[in-house]
Specification:
- There is one protein chain.
- The chain is 50% helix and 20% strand.
- The longest helix is centred in the first third of the chain and has 66 residues, at 11-76.
- By secondary structure, it is an alpha/beta fold.
- The strands form five sheets. Strands 17-18-20-21-22-23-24-25 form an eight-stranded mixed β-barrel, surrounded by five helices. Strands 2-1-5-4-3 form a five-stranded antiparallel beta sheet, sandwiched between helices. Strands 11-12-10-15-16 form a five-stranded mixed beta sheet, with helices on both faces.
- The chain has 25 helices and 25 strands.
Length: 792
Amino acid sequence: MFRSSNVPFSLRAQLLTFTAALVMASSCTVLLLVLLSSGSAIRETVNQQMRDGVENFVSAIYARREQLVSNASLLVSDFGFKQAVASNDADTIQSMLENHGSRVKADVMVIVDLRGRVVTSTSPQLTRGQVFGYESATHQVRKGEVFADFLVIGDAIFHMVLVPVRTPRLSAMAGIGIRVRPAGIREWISEPNIHLTFANGLPGEAAQWVVETSLPDLSSVVEAIRSPDNLVSLIRLPFQRVQTYSSREIDLSSASSSVKVFMSEDLSPYFTSYEVIRNQILLIAILVLIVAVIGSFIISQRLTKPLVMLAAKAREIARGVYSDMSEIPATSSDIATLTRAFLRMKVDLAEREERILFQASHDSLTGLLNRDSMMEAVSEVVDSDRQFMLLGLNLVGFKTINDTLGIEIGDECLVTVAKRLQKVAMDGIASRHSADEFSLLLPITGEQETTAQKILMCQRVLNEVSAPMQIDDISLTVDYRAGFIVFPDQAESAEQLLRRGKVALEHAITTSTPLYYFREGQDKVHLKKVKILRYLKETLQNDDDQLEMYYQPKYNVRTGQIEKAEALIRWFHPEEGFIPPDMFIELAEQTGLIGLVTSWVIGRVLDDQAEMKRLGISLQLSINMSAQDLSNDNLRVLIDQKLIENNLNAADICLEVTERDMMTDVEKSLDLLNYYRSRGFRLSIDDYGVGYSALSKLAMMPVHELKIDKCFILRLASRADDQIIVRSTVSMAHELGLSVIAEGVEDKESLDFLGELGCDYIQGYFIAKPMSRDALGQWLSEFSADRLLEGK
């Protein structure tokens, strides 16, 4: 059930929120677009005004310069002035400078000798004999050139011009200058929001900072000089200051002057116009927001009222109450459609609940109970203290029906069997557990008191189930394997009953018994197998040294040497003790663990082989392979890795495959065996004689040797039939170019007989029992072929 916390907002709140968010987003978008376009336009305007200002200012400066040069040239061309300079008449020079300066409205007039010292001046800041201070400027004039630039004289900045005075030779320099004053700066620039600043460097660069500016105060000068050369952004955060100015330096000075000229534009008018636009947009956005919220509220009220009523009806439906919905107002066609859908939902819901409950407890194909429902049904019958039998049934060869006649025929066959089972089952309690496995309960009456009577009843049921059936003009007969158990004679609970019933059925399948009656103690064997299987998984995962590899030597009859040994796995459990390989290997094959077992064996055997080679023991070790191992393509990768890791050759290993496993999938077995033979491995057919392989198949196998099963060797000395079989097998194998190993030799008579037949190798307790790797090394050091032949 949904909790209210999972849906934090009502539809009305969502509509209002969405409307408000949409208006705000639209307003912000418009505002952002205005800011971006305004910022771009203003930056272009600032750039253009600054460019125009610079051009106008430069033009005015050059005009002023030409005027100063003209005034200075007029002075130095006067004959009387030149005569006064030539005669060093200071009073006359002073008088002429004052008169000329008054006429041209100059703020300073000065005569400098060729040594760069002031001869006379109209300014108290330039006294007689004082060094003029601008060596590069005087040097330029001494070369006969005109010098014009902004210079700092005392605590003021002057636009100065120096020209040479010739009498007729160059004898002095005349200077004329106009002081830069804030009031006069406006003559150079007409725009009211553009300002000029003249200073002898940046703030802090000069010991005495001299500034002339049209800005209102010194702090504005510092702020303007340090401002960027354009408008950065109209948008600012609350803690950010407004950019007041945009400034750039105008490069007009020569190397003789330290005066810098800065042109600054006051940006406050742009921010003022932007704020007006911004406030107008915000006002419009607020008005639109108010209208939108009011409209949304009215619409949401009409929409949510029927929805609230429908929600209440839905809660009633969840409780199983189906009330009238006619009072729900159809405020829109969508609401009317939704109301009709709710009406239809009431009908569909009941049908769906019934269908879901059935599917959850029954098999979808046959309609029988599934495994969980069968457990519940059996538990109910057990609680009723009634006597009954649990019959488990497995259809034999059902996969063949599916493969040959098709899935449709197979499904019809299963449905027919299910109907027959349900017809005879007690209270109709029957179930399907897997594709071809069923179970049912059978009642026990007074006529089924003995075991034979119970078996007879089960047999009658099975005969009815397996009776021929007609499907699509095809007559089918199914075979079966079945096991049954009686309650309460053989079980105390439903769980125990079902488990023991499964054991009885598995025994029937394993032994190919049509009908098997559960025997006391069988579940113990089953539980023990389950426990051993669990132990096997744990020891394979933990590699806790419970598993060991033993080796049984193989004796070369011709050379009298021990050249080979078979690797045999042994399991010593700390609680169970020794667990026979036949028991856990079969379980591993049935449960798919055989791959892990084989991987462990291969790793340990190849490690032992490497260790024995290091100790100087040279034996070819045989490893047993199962049918599942043959079909495992990853096995070859593991073997290759271990060979490389231990620096071994493929010829050090012999792979033994049983005759039965080879026949499981002949084509794939041939492919894998051919691969291993091409790699250099020795290949052997194990347990030969107990399978059903044809001689033609045997001739095709790319093996090197044939190993006769021990069932023909154990009593070889006393049984003539075994002797005939062994003789023919040895002869046939040699004709096919195969070596022969006899397994299970336990007496000297069998050894002698096999030697006479030409058998190549023998293996058995007469030679040695399987032993650990270390024990094998000790045994090899003590082995004597002579003593073996003497029977000692």
